């Protein structure tokens, strides 16, 4: 299994500001995934973060809006830049466990509200 | 990327009845299909998965079937209980590199 800690768990932000979400994993993992889950909606993949290389973004998401860092194999950050109310969402960090089963583990999520 | 469609969006059943949720995927290279359960305010948790070399998998009251030719897979829950009430998500992955999720099914089991 993998234990994932995210910070902050929730925050209320002002329009136009930026917020960085941290994700810490208790084991070394190759890939870390960032998802967005808007209220009552599905999990949308924002980007895949690999250590030592630039993150790979999904269609509709760009680096200027969601810059990602991956300084080592246990940590990643996602920044939500120049926030608007449409960015209000839960952001989840996830990793595939190291057991080889392919199970995807999620952090508890960071609930952002943009006023 | 992969496109995963899921139906129905809501499902209401009587306790003890069966529930079936269906998903289709677009990328024939997808080879791993997990199902996640998300209770209100909690993170998604894996409940069962199936790989492309298997047609069916069962774990107690839960089963998953896969039709690679038609590119669809289904979750079957038998003898439903109130604690099965949650949102269920299907997903598709190519060798665990990325996971694309369906839109979710809100299951309500009425006692």
Structure summary:
The complex is a heterodimer of chains A (115) and B (111). Chain A has strands at 4-7, 10-13, 19-25, 31-37, 44-50, 56-57, 68-72, 75-80, 89-96, 104-106, 110-114.
Model description:
- The complex is a heterodimer of chains A (115) and B (111).
- Chain A is mainly beta.
- Chain A is built from no helices and eleven strands.
- Chain A has strands at residues 4-7, 10-13, 19-25, 31-37, 44-50, 56-57, 68-72, 75-80, 89-96, 104-106, 110-114.
- Chain B starts with a strand and ends with a strand.
- Classes of the chains: A mainly beta (115), B mainly beta (111).
- The interface between A and B is medium-sized, with 21 and 20 residues.
Write the layout of secondary structure elements.
The complex is a heterodimer of chains A (115) and B (111).
Chain A: E1 4-7, E2 10-13, E3 19-25, E4 31-37, E5 44-50, E6 56-57, E7 68-72, E8 75-80, E9 89-96, E10 104-106, E11 110-114
Parallel strand pairs in A: 2-11
Antiparallel strand pairs in A: 1-3, 3-8, 4-5, 4-9, 5-6, 7-8, 9-10, 9-11
Chain B: E1 4-7, E2 10-14, E3 19-25, E4 32-38, E5 45-51, E6 56-59, E7 62-67, E8 72-77, E9 86-93, E10 99-101, E11 105-110
Parallel strand pairs in B: 2-11
Antiparallel strand pairs in B: 1-3, 3-8, 4-5, 4-9, 6-7, 7-8, 9-10, 9-11
Query: Which structural class should the secondary elements of chain B be placed in?
Result: mainly beta
Q: Main sheet of chain B?
A: 6 strands, mixed
Report the total helices of chain B: 0
Structural class by helix and strand composition of chain A:
mainly beta
What is the count of β-strands of chain A?
11
Unreliable stretches of chain A: none
Shape of chain B: globular
**Counted beta strands of chain B:** 11
**Which percent range describes the beta-strand content of chain A?**
over 45%
Helical fraction of chain B equals under 10%
Low-confidence stretches of chain B: none
What fraction of residues of chain B sit in β-strands? over 45%
Succession of helices and strands of chain B: EEEEEEEEEEE
Largest sheet of chain A: 7 strands, mixed
Number of helices of chain A: 0
Fraction of residues in helix of chain A: under 10%
Largest interface: A-B, 21 and 20 residues
State the shape of chain A.
Answer: globular
**Estimated radius of gyration of chain A:** 13 Å
Average of pLDDT of chain B: 95
Backbone CA Rg of chain B: 13 Å
